[in-house]
Design brief:
It is built from 7 helices and no strands. With 115 residues, it is mostly helical. α2 packs antiparallel against α5 and α2 (22-39) crosses α7 (101-114).
Length: 115
């Protein structure tokens, strides 16, 4: 006789694998680099070579919260996160909440996994 498979168990395993896919981390990093580069004044020809996870966001955005918030909003929209995610940030201290590009990547990754 054949074995009976639970479709729901198979589906939940597939979803769990999808959430833990290492390609998601890379995609998040690439999207963060893209939007940070897009909204900052830094104009390097190849941003993936110049923007590393330990570069300070305050330096890139020259301590200006407005372009950072535009990049943050674009990331929220790109990853289809809840639109009120910006309300979790302390008003006026957004750049101190995310000192480095890596901190922003970790935040986005955590939010994506919560979906």
């Amino acid at each position: 006789m054949g074995e009976i498979y639970s479709f729901r168990a198979f589906q939940s395993k597939k979803e769990k694998k999808k959430a833990q896919d290492p390609r998601t981390t890379v995609a998040i990093y690439r999207s963060v680099v893209y939007y940070v580069h897009l909204y900052s004044d830094e104009r390097n020809e190849h941003p993936l070579e110049h923007l590393t996870t330990n570069i300070e966001l305050a330096t890139i955005f020259k301590n200006d919260r407005d372009p950072f918030m535009e990049a943050f909003a674009a990331l929220i929209q790109h990853w289809e996160l809840p639109p009120n995610s910006h309300q979790e940030l302390p008003r006026g201290r957004e750049l101190s909440q995310f000192p480095t590009l890596g901190d922003l990547c970790i935040y986005i990754e955590k939010k994506v996994k919560e979906l």
